[in-house]
Amino acid sequence: MFTGIVEELGEVTAVENLGDSSRFRLRGPVVTEGARHGDSIAVNGVCLTVVEHEGDEFTADVMAETLERSSLGALTVGARVNLERPTAVGARLGGHIVQGHVDGTGTILDRKPSDHWELVAISLPADLSRYVVEKGSITVDGISLTVVEAGTDRFTVSLIPTTLALTTLGIKQPGDPVNLEVDVIAKYVERLLAGQGAAR
């Protein structure tokens, strides 16, 4: 489990196309410290498994399902990525419960800068809109954010200077894709309520 608090801005150093999958090599001195084979690291909000680890780099295999459902398939050498290690049991939950299971992708629609923050509008797939509510939580490229406004096909988030400086949302522009993970609690509630209706 992750919290959506990005630990560092890493970099893609190699991409190997394996046909129905890809192998990525990524650099991240913070997240690779103490990393071992089989550990999990979230890359732009996608939970990946460490295959190899050497120095400040690690490799991870990405299957076709993940490439199709997320924006990882668009990554190229030199791309910057948000990196986070799983949260430790008993640690502070600084963001919200993030599984690293991307629900879909959105596109940055607009950026409106202010003196000390920035308002970013992001497109929202129709099948995810029911899970997104004003002042609720959403994960964008692995970043735990609070929804400012929620529409049927878009939502907005406010980004503080720290988020702009230390994550991919500081450099992405309108037209760029982002990974979205909605609050898993909302999906569980929906499933439970649907089950109650079927039992009547």
From TrEMBL:
Principal EC category: transferase
Pathway linked to the protein: Cofactor biosynthesis; riboflavin biosynthesis; riboflavin from 2-hydroxy-3-oxobutyl phosphate and 5-amino-6-(D-ribitylamino)uracil: step 2/2
Keywords: Repeat, Riboflavin biosynthesis, Transferase
Cited InterPro entries: ATP_synth_asu-like_sf, Lumazine-bd, Lumazine-bd_dom, Riboflavin_synthase-like_b-brl
Single GO MF descriptor: riboflavin synthase activity
EC number of the protein: 2.5.1.9
Per-repeat ranges for Lumazine-binding: 1-96, 97-193
Annotated ranges, domain Lumazine-binding: 1-96, 97-193
Pfam families, A to Z: Lum_binding (PF00677)
Gene3D superfamilies according to UniProt: 2.40.30.20
Parts of the chain that traverse the membrane: none
Function summary: Catalyzes the dismutation of two molecules of 6,7-dimethyl-8-ribityllumazine, resulting in the formation of riboflavin and 5-amino-6-(D-ribitylamino)uracil.
PANTHER family reported in the protein's UniProt record: RIBOFLAVIN SYNTHASE (PTHR21098:SF12), RIBOFLAVIN SYNTHASE ALPHA CHAIN (PTHR21098)
Protein name per UniProt: Riboflavin synthase
Organism (species): Streptomyces caeni
